[in-house]
Amino acid sequence: MGVSFSLYDHAIHADPYPVYERMREEAPVYRNDAEDFWALTRHADVAEALRDHARFSSANGVLLEPALWGPEAHRFGSFLAMDPPRHTRLRGLVSRGFTPRRVAELEERIRVIARRHLEPALEGGSFDLVADYAARLPMDVISELAGVPEGDRAELRRLADLIVHREEGVRDLPAAGIEAMFTLAGYFADLIAERRDRRRDDLASALLGVADGDARLTEEEILGVLFLLVAAGNETTANLIGNAWHCAWRHLDRPAAAFARIEDWIEETLRLEPASQGIARTAVDGFTLHGVAVPPEARVLLLIGSANRDPRVFPDPDRLDLDRDTSAKVAFGVGRHYCLGAGLARLEARVALEELAAHVTGFEVDEAAARRVHSPNVRGFASLPTTVTLR
Ligand code: HEM
């Protein structure tokens, strides 16, 4: 029987890797008629398409769900859903506010936020690594970066959760998620208006202050950028932390051994279980690859999760190997759209895992009670019940 891959199949969400392997070998240019997309799975093909923004456009967005696809995608996706020259201008201006220095300066604040969530969780010795810890951290960090006051952060976390929540059987964003998107946009619009009158030391103020003559950012553009940071940097980072935890437990004889190799642990998790499994493009003029002709304007899914396990690049790809050279992984994308938050994601994951390592000598995951996120492109856990041995 031919290989079959759907964005909404829960069995595939549970374990997509055997399906990816068959796609790489039997159907490297895979077609799903019902959901109207093509998929590339080999590392070389995925990397090449990510690099080639002229033939593989981001102008309809990068997520295939109906509410998120189309020429209006930039309204919520900002420059993630744009091609050069619009992308170049906006990303360039945002990079000036989102500097490595601004990110590095966040380390101590991230540690304070991490401890605030971790300490109550550790008290009983058993907690939910994702719901009680990993999922709380990134949105608070984005709030810190953007300049959201502490009193509003719990509400922002609630809205962000609604936006990423998916319902079984619904092949699109649920209505509550769409409503939350508008509420969050309204909140950010108010924040920007406030900062216009009174600047502070935060990203919203820095974006307002980007002085570049006529090229300066409009308030609508700043709103789109703040929204993009939530959409791109919240659930992905939570899942990186959860996936790292699960990978160590699943693959290592003594999971806590990973505490001695935190940076390698993060990099190998990004390869083995990337939080963002696939990113879509529009094949502007169509193309022919491996003997298959893909028509102009086709929706093409680039399966990062498969590229990162292509044995042509990563020998014995299903094994967690902390000594492996992971530099060819495509977990943060490639080329012009390379993740702007990669440094922040790595910093958050490192701090989150260092704080666990400081308190814990061993841990167990209750796999039977764990719950996966069911999303067409996000890989991770909604719940990861854990028991720890404290120092
Ligand atoms: C483990 C965590 C993360 C993963 C796996 C991840 C993954 C990615 C990927 C694959 C892309 C490329 C999209 C494309 O080519 O169309 C991307 C872009 C982006 N990411 Fe991340 N991301 C993570 C964390 C973050 C964080 C923490 C932020 C910021 C708060 C962030 C902000 C962005 C932005 C702004 C872009 C758009 C870049 C552009 O279009 O030029 N990401 N991310």
Automatic annotation (TrEMBL):
GO terms (molecular function) for this protein are: cholest-4-en-3-one 26-monooxygenase activity; heme binding; iron ion binding; steroid hydroxylase activity
Q: Does the keyword tRNA-binding apply?
A: no
Q: Which UniProt keywords apply?
A: Heme, Iron, Metal-binding, Monooxygenase, Oxidoreductase
Question: Which terms under GO biological process does the entry name?
Answer: cholesterol catabolic process
The similarity annotation says: Belongs to the cytochrome P450 family.
> Could you identify this protein by its name?
Cytochrome P450
